[in-house]
TrEMBL record:
GO molecular function annotations of the record: isomerase activity
Domain Xylose isomerase-like TIM barrel: 23-266
Gene3D superfamilies for this protein: Divalent-metal-dependent TIM barrel enzymes
Name of the protein in question: Sugar phosphate isomerase
Record-linked PANTHER family: BLR5974 PROTEIN, HYDROXYPYRUVATE ISOMERASE
SUPFAM superfamilies recorded: Xylose isomerase-like
InterPro entries: IolE/XylAMocC-like (IPR050312), Xyl_isomerase-like_sf (IPR036237), Xyl_isomerase-like_TIM-brl (IPR013022)
Keywords for this protein: Isomerase
Top-rank lineage group of the source organism: Bacteria
């Protein structure tokens, strides 16, 4: 499995651009790059610029993956640039991005369903808990958008891979992909986000593995807080995730899927699990007692390392780069042990 990085969290990427970022990633010995937006390859979506970046990645032997835009219609007001691209038609803007990616040979495309407002505290930071439109209605509307995009994706030979983002459960992502069709849709497995929804990351890996084509990979630190349980990001191998157990189903079902380290920017991205809140509990109809109990067990297992002041302090560029390189080193060690076990 090839290991690269999410460039949106890569130090220097936003300042220096895609060409520099690919060179830097290659110099560090990584295998590829995920750009969250096609605008990161070309601010004007110039076909020549996009093709040049794609060709440069290929010349360096790097995989290249690109994000499109959110597919939940109730999240689209937060992406006015996509609507503008479609001359007022958001779906048309999304289709233009997909076509531009395909024209440059980029066929594994990321998407997600909603957003997280870090400046807001409480349940309503997460779109799952909106009261103006219930989450079930957001999922139904998302499914309709996927159905409209399916024919185009099939014609172009692309996969649109829905992330296990902070607001959506792995159960729900699997259902969306199965309904829309795995021939055009897949999953971007974010290993840290499933814990925000109270899921056991190993059980989630087994659920999503048959449809996983991309990933956002990072470990998790857990701590009991006044809100319930706090999830913080940690480099792979320095948190609570059992990486051999998590990677095993991916190797079995999705050996060609990429592992893109999603790092940190200025903080460890604390997100609360309001596990004692009846509203939070009612909003997770698929969640089992067994998986939630595993989240509690993992939180207790991290207790000796759970110093909230340290977990909540700001991070700097050196630590943010080390987050990526340390994660890559750990994953390569685990993958080597899984694929080339030492003879007994």
């Amino acid at each position: 499995m090839r290991i690269g990085t999410d460039t949106s969290k890569f130090p220097g990427a936003s300042e220096h651009g895609a060409h520099w970022t690919l060179d830097k990633i290659h110099s560090l010995g990584l295998d590829g790059a995920f750009f969250r937006s096609l605008f990161a390859l070309s601010p004007t979506l110039d076909p020549g610029e996009i093709f040049e970046i794609s060709a440069h990645a290929a010349s360096l032997g790097l995989y290249l993956e690109v994000g499109t835009a959110k597919v939940n219609p109730f999240a689209t007001p937060e992406a006015p640039e996509i609507r503008a691209l479609g001359d007022g038609d958001y779906l048309l803007g999304l289709e233009k991005i997909i076509r531009a990616c395909a024209a440059a040979g980029i066929t594994e495309l990321w998407t997600a369903t909603a957003n997280y407002q870090f400046k807001i505290k409480g349940l309503y930071a997460c779109d799952r808990f909106r009261t103006d439109v219930w989450w079930a209605d957001q999922l139904a509307a998302t499914a309709k958008v996927l159905a409209k995009l399916g024919p185009l994706l099939r014609d172009l030979g692309c996969h649109l891979n829905i992330e296990t983002h902070e607001e959506i459960t792995s159960f729900e992502v699997v259902r969306l992909v199965e309904e829309a069709g795995p021939d055009a849709f897949g999953i971007t497995f974010d290993t840290a986000n499933v814990l925000v929804r109270g899921e056991d990351p190993i059980a989630a890996a087994h659920r999503v593995a048959p449809y996983t084509r991309q990933s956002h990979v990072r470990d998790v630190a857990l701590a009991f807080t006044d809100d319930g349980i706090g999830r913080f990001l940690a480099p792979c191998g320095q948190g609570v995730i059992d990486w051999p157990a998590l990677l095993a189903p991916l190797l079995e079902h999705a050996p060609d899927a990429t592992l893109s380290i999603e790092g940190i920017v200025r903080s460890r991205a604390e997100m609360p699990l309001f596990v004692d809140d009846p509203v939070w509990q009612a909003a997770h109809p698929d969640l089992t007692v067994t998986e939630l109990a595993e989240v509690y067990r993992l939180t207790r297992s991290y207790a000796d390392r759970a110093h909230l002041d340290l977990l909540r302090r700001p991070t700097g560029a050196d630590e943010e780069l080390a987050f990526i390189t340390d994660s890559v080193a750990h994953l390569r060690t685990v993958l080597k042990e899984l694929t080339c076990p030492t003879p007994s």
